[in-house]
Protein: Cytidylate kinase
Organism: Embleya scabrispora
Amino acid sequence: MEARTPLATAVVAIDGPSGSGKSSVSRAVAARLGLRYLDTGAMYRAMTWWMLTNGVDIHDPAAVAAASDKPQIVSGTAPDGPTITVDGRDAAGPIRTDEVTKAVSAVSAVPEVRTRLVDLQRAVIGAGGIVVEGRDIASVVAPDAPVKVYLTASEAARAARRNAELTGTQATSVEDTRADLARRDALDSGRAVAPAGMAEGAILVDTTELNREQVVDHLLALVAEHVR
């Protein structure tokens, strides 16, 4: 029988595109299991926000690379209230703006940015006991994770979910949201370093017809099969 990893040291890697439900599901799974939680996408958004705030040309990879070691990004890991600060400043709100959303793929494609943030992510993961969500967790950040899940959903479902999250000045049509998701998918899956996608050995979970609780229950069952 294959030895199973203790829950206290396990890493649950959850990858998937925007709108697949990975953020809400990952937080819920972590809370139910009493584990820590890390949103790696927020770290890329934090880096992007810092670049924009400090006047770095995000379309100049050399400029982004040169500045990538400057911001001090700290991620809290409480699933019921994850935090993220940049240079000591609360960035949870600023990193969710439309400006950051449109710029994050360009910044994330710069190899030096990925190297810096993967190092930070691995430092947070440490000895485990954590649910980590992103787009390259199972393939790059934590390839030895005992539980690897790839969440997906139809384009229509993803666009509807993402659109429901947008409020105020970010509000737009479902069609525009769908086009933006397709643009980000193409950029993230086509980048030269750590392209987004399903890792070898990951379990595919299609959430199109499932509500959040159904997905959470399914993932908890998967975790129970692989950890003790």
